[in-house]
Specification:
44% helix, glyoxalase-related enzyme like fold, five-stranded mixed β-barrel, 5 domains, alpha/beta
């Protein structure tokens, strides 16, 4: 106050608020320590002394500043003088896409009707024509024509000028205009679309169009946008990266001084913890859950989940302006020169009415584009996605594709390859395209949480009667057997049942999506229920309707989005059913994507009769390719025997050099470019290519010199005998590749690795093995134990108590699915689907989450042709795999207990030898497949 008087300036009273209530001080302390890389013990004065810097009510501020009331008054004066508001920002759409002499609306109308004629060469259906007229009228009224033109131009460039596979999804698939412009692929004449879900006068925000492009070629599209509009007018939106469970555990535990080993163990125990009360199993880590410090730590971990961590770049949300970006939004530079990031996220952008074009990446589009190319190259068939969908209308053509889904034979297939989806498919038994739309949407938190799944399946299987109180609701819910599964259905119920406008129905949908956070849903309840009663519906039915759509509203899936994805589901099913060689090759070349690793994709292809050949320096390209092979139908595994007449493949897959872990593409390309008629020896390759010895070691480790007649150990011996960093440096200028005689390798007559050791080395250097399966080498011991092969589970009666063992491939916990976890294990004969209920998981948490080779004992549960093993107990056999990886002779020892593979210190070994053995064990552990977790 004295300083203010001396300087002649007013005194302001503020509280420099850091958190909204005193109890959040510990969270602020923890994030301060995270930022400063300190612990709570070492942070000292960097932490606040007390919890006073919370948001205080006016009366509390008046009490604190009772001696300086003018300071509070001056604060209000200053706030009153601040005139700027974000709604003063004026956004102008770019004009580059408007035709000469036309307005934006005129250009849009022309392109839309031209597109409609292409989409419907036999005449535009009345339903579609009416939709186009009403949509174009609303777009004109809201002045959004330039937005549609911008998105259409991006899609046109990708598809017509670059040949990139792409399609729109999300709520935009509700628009007939988007379909006719070529942005989306869902035919409005075949699906009940709700344009109000996408655009309405009540939404008061610009439309949102998401477009998926091939994930490896999206950068080409992004470059086009930057080139067309310029870096000063184009920027990517930001996204707020929040703490997820494991990062919250890791960073909070460090602040509390927990050791790295314990933190790693805590994260291994974790599986979607929701609160401190959900923590289970920490006593196994010698931690006391009743310890006050640990309780506080777990409370902070819970508080940090979904708490903002840092600002990052959105995956593809572009802001494009007519004028400079910096005059409209805050921007910052990215790591890439000439590119900028808008420091607001998508919700901020939407609130201000700023155009955002979402240019997203989808791996399955890359896979399908490669599939079509391989189909043309090797089978002479020129097809596109639209051709497959046209064939889907023919019962005799689509039947084999849908039969494959009945067996849950969907590894690698878009959207329906997860264990949860595989569990649903035998019960759903899809027979037409709309069944795939439902399949995509039904295994989601919304329908599960809203209790929609069981009633739908009961009605689909004719175990429960389907009835509708009024015909207009049958039009809304008929295709889903009276059960609301989609967001659009919730809106349509509000429209036809309660008399809501399309815009108000969308407001209801938005309120449902956020009802747990802001409580705005209650204001719609009375109007919805009274509206339905006024239209003649019983009150109890109206209340049940509202309760249902509330139950799944937060996670509800748009029908238009599911329909867009279902197109890709059918296309990927078609390829897998008829051309498994093409599909697997394309899928391998599109990695990483999906649920399964290359090892499982290769195994699945082999089961479907496709020969897979090893990567080799004389025979492989960089990418995986198809070669002349055998009729796949003659080599198909017995579990897929009924597909024999549906498979048309006769090619083999040659693994590419890209599969060699750590091999640079430039080195692989050099090997291919200078190969000529082939390399006669390792030394010949070294001298002709000049690649480093370290690269040759990677190839030797991967056993990629098979065509030279040397095994892995011999190849490593030869490589390590080479001198110099690059062989080409040993040759005179211009002599590379022109030698009359080929240099021979040094003599190396070394025994091959033990088969089991070789297989594990394959996994370490190639991420897969064609020589065998690790579990196969342990089969004699498992047989003595009575453990069944995975392929034999289907031969045992339903309800039998059995044991199976295999490598853990996938663990999946669908949202709110009663705590159930779906696991997939794999042995040398195939895969087994494991169901782990919550109680069983809690009792076996460490083994379920930490094992790589697992034996599961439980009860068989059969649904049609699909068998699940409902787990009761588990045994960890990972130590045996480690012994196998080290080439140890595991002999004929039984596998009675999971800890038999663990070896204690052996007498007579010094500390150095024990340290070396431990290092080998760690390397072997790192080489083993660890499984993929999804939750």
């Amino acid at each position: 106050a004295t300083m203010a008087r001396e300087c002649g300036v007013p005194l302001l009273a503020v509280n420099a608020v850091l958190y909204h209530e005193p109890g959040r001080k510990i969270v602020h302390d923890v994030v301060t320590c995270i930022r400063e890389h300190l612990t709570l013990e070492t942070a000292g004065r960097r932490l606040q002394q007390n919890a006073e810097r919370h948001l205080k009510p006016a009366h509390e501020m008046a009490r604190l500043f009772a001696e300086h009331p003018q300071a509070l008054a001056q604060t209000h004066v200053l706030l009153g003088r601040i005139e700027f508001s974000l709604d003063q920002l004026k956004y102008n759409y770019p004009t580059e896409t408007i035709g000469n002499g036309e307005t934006a609306q005129e250009t849009l109308v022309r392109l839309t009707w031209d597109g409609a004629k292409r989409r419907y060469p036999r005449g535009i259906p009345d339903k579609v024509e009416a939709s186009l007229h009403s949509e174009l009228k609303l777009i004109d009224e809201l002045k959004y024509a330039s937005y549609f033109l911008t998105v259409q131009d991006v899609v046109r460039y990708a598809r017509e000028e670059r040949g990139i596979l792409c399609q729109g999804r999300g709520s935009a698939a509700n628009s007939a205009v988007c379909y006719c412009l070529g942005i989306t692929e869902v035919d409005p004449d075949k699906v009940n679309l709700v344009f109000g879900r996408f655009l309405s006068t009540e939404r008061n925000e610009p439309p949102d169009i998401d477009v998926d492009f091939e994930h490896e070629r999206r950068e080409e599209v992004m470059q086009y946008v930057y080139k067309k509009y310029g870096g000063a007018r184009t920027g990517l939106t930001a996204t707020v990266i929040s703490y997820r469970s494991k990062s919250a555990i890791r960073e909070t535990a460090k602040v509390f001084g927990i050791s790295d080993d314990t933190i790693a163990a805590l994260n291994q125990l974790h599986w979607g913890w929701g609160s401190a009360a959900d923590l289970k199993g920490i006593r196994t880590l010698n931690l006391d859950p009743d310890d006050p410090t640990l309780t506080q730590m777990f409370n902070v971990i819970s508080a940090l989940k979904s708490f903002p961590r840092h600002l990052s770049q959105h995956v593809g949300g572009f802001v494009i302006t007519r004028d400079s970006l910096e005059s409209l939004v805050p921007i910052s530079k990215t790591a890439m020169e000439s590119r900028t990031i808008v420091e607001w996220d998508k919700d901020d952008i939407d609130a201000l009415g700023i155009l955002k074009v979402d240019i997203l990446a989808l791996g399955m589009l890359s896979c399908l584009r490669r599939s079509f190319e391989l189909l043309h190259q090797h089978y002479g068939r020129d097809l596109v996605l639209a051709d497959l969908m046209a064939e889907e209308a023919q019962p005799e053509v689509k039947a084999p594709v849908y039969r494959m889904t009945h067996r849950a034979d969907t590894i690698g297939v878009f959207q329906i390859e997860s264990r949860a989806q595989m569990s649903m498919l035998p019960r759903m038994k899809p027979v037409e395209f709309y069944d795939l739309v439902i399949e995509v949407a039904i295994v989601r938190p919304g329908p599960i949480q809203g209790g929609m799944v069981h009633p739908y399946l009961q009605r689909r299987q004719n175990r429960e009667k389907v009835s509708f109180p009024k015909p207009e609701l049958e039009a809304v819910l008929g295709r889903t057997l009276g059960v609301p599964l989609f967001q659009e259905q919730a809106m349509q119920i509000a429209i036809v049942g309660a008399g809501f406008s399309a815009g108000k129905a969308d407001q209801l949908r938005r309120a449902m999506a956020a009802w747990k956070r802001n409580g705005k849903l209650a204001q719609f309840a009375d109007e919805f229920i009274s509206g339905m009663i006024g239209n003649g519906y019983p009150e109890d039915f109206a209340r049940r309707c509202f309760s249902q759509i509330q139950g799944f509203g937060e996670y509800g899936f748009p029908e238009s989005h599911a329909a867009s994805f279902a197109l890709l589901v059918y296309a990927s099913c078609w390829f897998k059913c008829h051309y498994p060689d093409v599909f697997a090759c394309a899928l391998l070349n599109s990695q990483p994507m999906g649920f399964y690793s290359p090892a499982q994709i290769v195994r699945d292809a082999i089961e479907h009769g496709v020969e897979v050949r090893p990567a080799d320096i004389n025979r492989s390209d960089y990418a995986h390719v198809l070669e002349s092979g055998f009729e796949a139908r003659d080599r198909i595994a017995r579990q897929h025997a009924e597909m024999r007449d549906d498979i048309w493949s006769n090619r083999a897959i040659r693994l590419g050099l890209k599969q060699v872990v750590g091999l640079k593409q430039d080195h692989a390309n050099l090997i291919i470019a200078r190969r000529g008629e082939g390399y006669a020896s390792i030394r010949d390759l070294w001298l002709r290519t000049g690649i480093p010895v370290a690269t040759l070691e990677k190839l030797a480790e991967a056993d990629a010199f098979g065509s030279l007649g040397v095994n892995r150990r011999e190849a490593l011996w030869i490589v390590r005998g080479l001198h110099g960093s690059a062989g080409a440096e040993q040759l005179p200028l211009f002599a590379i590749g022109k030698r009359d005689s080929k240099p021979d390798d040094a003599e190396a007559d070394l025994p091959s690795m033990a088969p089991g050791e070789s297989v594990v080395h394959d996994y370490r250097t190639l991420s897969l093995s064609l020589k065998g399966h690790p579990v196969g080498f342990l089969r004699p011991q498992f047989d003595r134990r009575g453990t069944l092969r995975c392929a034999d589970l289907g031969d045992r009666p339903n309800g039998a108590i059995v044991e199976a063992a295999g490598l853990v491939l996938v663990r999946q916990q669908p949202g709110t699915a009663s705590g159930v976890i779906f696991m997939t294990i794999e042995d040398e004969t195939g895969i087994a689907s494991i169901i782990v209920w919550n109680k069983t998981f809690d009792q076996n948490r460490r083994v379920v989450l930490g094992s790589r080779l697992l034996a599961v004992r439980g009860q068989l549960q059969r649904e049609g042709l699909v068998t699940h093993l409902v787990s009761r107990s588990f045994t960890d056999f990972t130590p045996r795999l480690i012994d196998l990886a080290q080439g140890l002779d595991i002999g004929t020892a039984g596998l009675a207990h999971g800890d038999e593979g663990r070896r204690g210190p052996q007498p007579g070994r010094d500390a150095g030898e024990l340290k070396r053995q431990e290092q080998l064990r760690r390397e072997a552990w790192a080489a083993l497949p660890s499984g993929r977790n999804f939750h």
